[in-house]
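sanity check this record:

:::
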Amino acid sequence: MDLAITNLDHSYQCYCALTRIAAAVANAPPGRINVDCSAARFISSGMTAHLQVALAPWARSIAFTNLRPEVKVALAKNGLFREKVQERGRTTIPLTKFHPSEAKRFAAYSGEHLRDKGIPRMSQPLEAKFFESIDELFQNCALHSKADLVFSCGQLFPKMRVLEFAIADTGIGIAKSLERIGKFYRPDRAIEWAMHHGTSRIGDVPGGLGLKIIREFIELNGGEITVVSDQGFWQMRRRSSVAKLLPFRFPGTAVTLKVDTSDTNFYDFATPIDPGSIF
């Protein structure tokens, strides 16, 4: 089977194309899948995690062909291919596969690779809660999404002053997760609910601020956050958000954060945190 991709950034059009690929792969007969990349001048580092989910059913039978040299080098540094390219400057957050039971391993990975990448200064309590919120994105993959695999990666772009971090899972999606607590939304509205309410934890499982605190930080920072789950697309850019339906289903949930590393503000909680609102 032959597929083709063009530029993969984090636009709505990009995810429309990615979900078409996911739908084609899901219905593909056994055999090798060739992904023609000749029209791709740019593939965002964060998109490699999302590609892994889209191509998961045939991960061992995928060949990326006709890659432009500069794109191939960037993706090799990211760890998409077996042959890796040595990088300088620690700008890459390597593509890494996790099982849902590996929460501690993910926490070590996110802490190691995000702390020295230019995230704006924060108070110690807020920084601790910020990283807890990143870890909660991973924990939700096991608690709610029922994912088999989780992929994460990212990249610091020093000249653009942007830090990109992505996490994607192969689970049931946000809308179906919310159905378990009696909330029924179409996929794009389900993401919107999660972004403003922060968590869908159930019963006596400890809760957290999760997506909500990340969204609030990115909004103040002037960065960007994109969430795709099932047929839902939600994106906040420059403090303005949009929610849309995609033409096909993304087979899981993908979250991408873009932090403006030129931000010189110091961040702290506006008021002390009430422990009862967190746990």
Q: What stands out?
A: Helices lie at 12-26, 47-54, 69-78, 103-114, 124-143, 174-179, 187-197, 210-221.
